[in-house]
Write a structure and sequence with these properties.
The chain is elongated, with a radius of gyration of 22 Å. It starts with a strand and ends with a strand. The strands form four sheets. The protein has a five-stranded mixed sheet with strand order 2-9-8-4-6, with no helix packed on it. It has a four-stranded antiparallel sheet with strand order 1-3-7-5, with no helix packed on it. The protein has no helices and 16 strands. The protein is mainly beta.
């Protein structure tokens, strides 16, 4: 087995997924070539759809492709080592998967001041584009503000589409507020 190579060199530190290709040293035998894959750091990487974390290079084939996903534990590391160990006597190989941490800006409000019944639009910006599956941000409900989508539905989380860096939502005061500052808080990506 030669070094695994990822189609995308980085995974986001949220539930992100990339396809990895393993190149065999020669054609796989009849019945295929089982290859066990693993990450060095516990709980950082997972391999969706691979029973027992084993991918099978098809009979006669020179490559095997499989998904590698980052888990919530990826928020605590900047990289992990992916290992591929064939079960039929070939040499194991390793590749480093870089994990980029997405950070959030403080929500930008427009307008910055609203009166009862008024609406402000909040924009949140990620440090990097959202991963292929998008990102979900948590909205901290404080009882004095109502968070809404563009249609006016109450929301407690915000979806950032794949490849996007910005997402918007509406903020509306709940009940009667005296002149006061109320924080709008968005939490780290939750999925």
């Amino acid at each position: 087995v030669r070094d695994p190579s990822a189609d995308a060199p980085n995974l986001a530190a949220v539930t992100d997924e990339v396809d990895v290709v393993i190149t065999l040293n020669g054609p796989a035998p009849a019945g295929g070539s089982p290859i066990r894959v693993s990450g060095a750091a516990p709980a950082v990487l997972s391999f969706p759809g691979l029973p027992n974390n084993t991918v099978v290079g098809p009979a006669g084939g020179l490559e095997a492709t499989f998904p590698v996903a980052s888990n919530p534990a990826a928020r605590t590391v900047s990289q992990d080592t992916l290992s591929a160990t064939p079960t039929l006597g070939d040499q194991p190989a390793q590749a480093v998967i870089n994990i980029r941490r997405l950070t959030l800006s403080t929500p930008a409000l427009n307008p910055t001041q609203i009166i009862g019944g008024g609406i402000s639009t909040a924009t949140v910006t990620l440090s990097d584009p959202a991963p292929a599956r998008g990102a979900v941000l948590g909205l901290v409900v404080n009882g004095r503000l109502r968070y809404e989508d563009a249609q006016g539905n109450v929301i407690t989380s915000l979806n950032v589409p794949a490849g996007a860096r910005n997402a918007t939502f509406r903020v509306r005061p709940e009940g009667v507020l005296l002149s006061t500052n109320v924080p709008v808080t968005v939490t780290e990506t939750v999925s």
